[in-house]
Design a protein that fits this description.
By secondary structure, the chain is of the alpha/beta class. The protein has 26 helices and 14 strands.
Amino acid sequence: MSHRLAAVAGSRAVTGPLSVLWRCGATAAAGARALGTAQQVSRPALPSGRRRTGRGRARRRGDAIRVQKSTVPKKESGELKNAEPGGDGNKRGGRQDSFAWWKRMQKGEFPWDDKDFRNLAILGAGVSVGFFYFYFRDPGKEITWKHFVQYYLARGLVSELCLPGKVLWWYALAGDRWCPKSQSCWGVSFLRSLVPTLLLVGILLYAVRRGPMGAGRSGRGGGLFSVGETTAKILKHDINVRFADVAGCEEAKLEIMEFVNFLKNPKQYQDLGAKIPKGAMLTGPPGTGKTLLAKATAGEASVPFITVNGSEFLEMFVGVGPARVRDMFAMARRNAPCILFIDEIDAIGRKRGRGHLGGQSEQENTLNQMLVEMDGFNSTTNVVVLAGTNRPDILDPALTRPGRFDRQIYLGPPDIKGRSSIFKVHLRPLKLDESLRNDALARKLAALTPGFTGADISNVCNEAALIAARHLSAFVQQKHFEQAIERVIGGFEKKTQVLQPSEKTTVAYHEAGHAVVGWFLEHADPLLKVSIIPRGKGLGYAQYLPREQYLYTREQLFDRMCMMLGGRVAEQLFFGQITTGAQDDLRKVTQSAYAQIVQFGMSEKLGQVSFDIPQQGEALVEKPYSEATAQLIDEEVRRLIGSAYDRTLELLTRCREQVEKVGKRLLEKEVLEKADMVELLGPRPFVEKCTYEEFVEGTGSLEEDTSLPEGLKGWNQGREGGHLQESPA
């Protein structure tokens, strides 16, 4: 037979001069006649009125052929007609609305009107169809033409024949599909090999155009080629943080107020010949309010405030960091006068030239571009750059020099007056007991929290409210704040933890040793509470009240070492053996001894020298002293710790009865307050400060100074909505 036939069921076929559609009857003769007339006419009349037009059964030549049963309804075209073209729907620009459809699905809605959801659904459907087609497709079984005529056509097993392409396909009544071995399948094979490539290219194009990498973090369009655009954001006027919400850092607030005043009232400074500073670096330990101060600046200033995180400059692509720096400063120039805040600048501002093994670093390229952009500002640009970091020691000197960051603003842990002001801020939204006054409560809590940062104080107030709610209390009471302070310092209580009687006795006498040594040493911290209820990782807990001081003498440090060794000495004295419970005490004693010998120059043999001690997690590549000096340092540390141990042993031997009293009372009550210690040991033989008034005595005032200089009293007069309140409390 000179022409090829293809059989289709329930689909379209292209008809032409050499194509014919036959639907054979149940007899072999009807099938033979159909094959015979296919060579003579282009549109033969089919028997029994079963002739179908080319329009109703058309299929484009060269398309992939799928054999279906004649009883399968035509759904594909209907589905395509019902598919709506993509629209923008209710999608809003920006990254924050990119997954709005997912939030709607979580609420039980079906977001078909969302463009992103439709695109994702269509992509998923296409991938699924392609997967199932190539996984479950039947390539067909090749047979000879003679075998087909003899065993299928002559027996009346063929239901339908069609010839739209170059391959003969038919559908047998038994449900099998066959392909004659003598025919060529190169067209279909080429198409099948091309479909996976086209599918992969389509998925990649979709990912570039619509995926997360295409839109970028800033939510802009442009696909993958917009990756160099800045991720900085211009904050609107809906910032709820004000300078009144920032307390405990009045000097830093004045510096920031002056920067804003530079931008709003430049004539005040230009008349005197002053130039606007290029920038300021906010440094200090974590939790001291660097980012909060920047938020307050954004809330108070009427100039544009642009913010960005240092880690957002570094991506997987080379050159993205410098490109984003250029784009960010271009944005700042367009919005001048404005304030640009870079949080955690140490991500890109580290010192150059170390740890890259001769290769070029993307971080260094970004830093170099930052240096060029900042140095490129002139005095009329009116763009102030603020940056925040808690690691100023690792920053590149070229970044921190005057001309780029002119001012270094240090925000350290607040003193007792600053803590009182911070407590007043965080006590405002709490529902306190009517008997508590905010000022008096803030002062008392400030005296109980030496060394706390603003973040710690915020956590204490929140924990107090949670504890009050846990006990169904109508108000937050003072005891809730005391429990919150213990929770923050020592961790939560483990009242269900099971201790053996011998372990409980050891813990009781261990804590009694600490308490008695601290009670009878002049420079030890006053004791507030001691407990043998496990907290956090420890089996016992003792709360002391450190002094508000910044300078320590050798005698004061030595007494603190003796107090830390009191638990280990008590174990040795009363049980004749030592346990692992003193591991944390020994670590602190060792750190204190090394600091005295190496850093503070308190060793007579070593002399008045000071060396740096590597911080935790840092590796000491090269010691700044010789091996002989290192050996002398170790000997002096052992001598100092040994002297403290001997003194503690002598003290507890002399006060053995007092240790037994405290230990037995701890086993009975588990928790001892300061009043219980006075009952057991008598009044402490030294003068100690415990109240807020005693701590601030001689400092000039009970509260921190929040007054503004004359030149800054009208710093925010131009702001819409009113003036700045001078008091931050």
